[in-house]
Amino acid sequence: MRDTVYFLAFDGYADCDAALALCEIRRPGSYRVQTVGLDRRPVLSLGGLRVLPDLAPQDIDPARAALLILPGGTAWERGLDGGAVAAARRLHAAGACVAGIGGGTLPLARAGLLDTRWHTSSRPGYLQGFAPDYAGTTLYDPGLLAVEDDRVISASGAGNVEFARAVIRALALYDEVDTAYWYQLYKLGVLPPWLAAGAATPLTEAA
């Protein structure tokens, strides 16, 4: 039963990257979220949140894994691994979805998961610069903020809303109509019909 979303937490991980995705995963209550640390010691996020990981990479249960989220953080550029690359490869091979955003696309590249799949990342040349064995340049699309192909989600660090939408679709959290309403609300500030009917004025950007 694939009922668990695993989230990799390490010192300096970009908590902003997957915040929307995590909230939507937990909202329906169909999935549990567990944090994975490189060890069991507390970690401090980029935003200053202290997290005590639930388990280490080797303790992930592939049979229960619906999704592995790899958030961004400059630690990836400094060669962070700690079992993350092997975990991404192992979980995808077992049938789970794996998702990286910003620097979190580097372990996907190092695992070889972007070599044969349509993907994106933070900027052209980023994956080649920090993942020397990466061989997917012809499938890299700089025009997308997030994309999913064959259970691999990749996203730019500027695409946290698009990343969350890809996660919503991968886990079938909402149908396509509600997913479209969700995206319009969080990306464009457009209220869904059931909320707009009671709103006196549309949402506008603060001055």
UniProtKB/TrEMBL annotation:
Q: Which ranges carry the DJ-1/PfpI domain?
A: 4-169
> GO annotations under biological process?
regulation of DNA-templated transcription
Q: Quote the PANTHER family the UniProt record gives.
A: ARAC-FAMILY TRANSCRIPTIONAL REGULATOR, HTH-TYPE TRANSCRIPTIONAL REGULATOR RV1931C
Tell me the protein's name: ThiJ/PfpI domain-containing protein
Lineage runs: Bacteria, Pseudomonadati, Pseudomonadota, Gammaproteobacteria, Lysobacterales
